[in-house]
Write a structure and sequence with these properties.
single chain, about 375 residues, alpha+beta, 2 domains, five-stranded antiparallel sheet, 5 strands, about 60% helix, elongated, cell membrane
Amino acid sequence: MKKSTSLTKIALQKFKKNIWGVFSFAFLVMCVFLAVFAYALAPDDSENANQMHLSIHSKNPGFRVQMLTIPAKVEDQNVVTAFFFGKKNADTEIPISKYSIKNNGIEITEYMQDETAGLQKEYSLSQFPDLQHASEIPDNYISERKFLLGTDKYGRDLLSRMLIGIRISLAIGFIAVLISLLIGITMGAIGGYFGGKIDAAIMWIINVTWSIPTLLLVIAITLALGKGFWQVFIAVGLTMWVEVARVVRGQVMGVKQMQYVTAARALGFNDFRIVTKHILPNSLAPVIIISAANFASAILIESGLSFLGIGAQPPVPSWGGIIKDHYAYIILGKPYLALIPGLAIMSLVTAFMLIGNALRDALDVRNS
């Protein structure tokens, strides 16, 4: 037990010496924080950050505009639900260039892209139920809105969409890796421990699954299960277990020859206890490294599926979906609309790959 603890400390010390590994770990912790508090941090905290303003579409980062909010009655929403899934906002937001107070309301001039005179509209005081005088409208329902990353082609706040999109990428990675570990470790351990016909049958399944291109298999499973959020998670997870199973099988075949396993059999322990208590704990170091790489692969696959239109469906914000909506803008003078989500995907995938490399070096006993 002491030896195990000392090896763990040695691995941790080696990991801390890897600058890129520590930096990537800190970056991922920040991403997890942003994912958890996405709606609290997002300027647009409506559900899926889907508040559209077509008159200010495709605006540059840092764009500012005055926004008039017309309140609407909505059902009371649980605070916890609003925090994690956004507010069910039915308010109407109107970008305006100027306004003037009238006796019974407010007159506004809508914002226009080409600096021409926008439409003029009047809103009566009755549309603002909490106010007694029209002069109170600007202080309570007009605010200056700043879009730090600009707006997308529908006039939605790009920063808010990016923040909530982190959830999709991290969730797909976590759930897909979890599914792949459950299936891969089970199949690999059974095949490696029992051998014979059982191992041959499992290897046949592994080889057949391995021979099918991953993206095609994911597309086939997604189409069979239907388009949607959870369907993509399951589809990606069902295609990533093969590599885990092969590694676990090889590790189990080597570890089961150890003397402590023979001693466990001699003591009368059943196969389940021997595998779970004695073999697997000493076989999972490579699996941890593979899981980091699979996490990165899952993010790339989900982004690819969303780009093809069979991943997370609108209005759910997915980084791949954002690229799909704006890739044409690369040649239309606003490349940042596609480059920002592209750089985000690249950063997240790179972080997981660097952590995988750092774990590989830290868990390498030959360098201990």
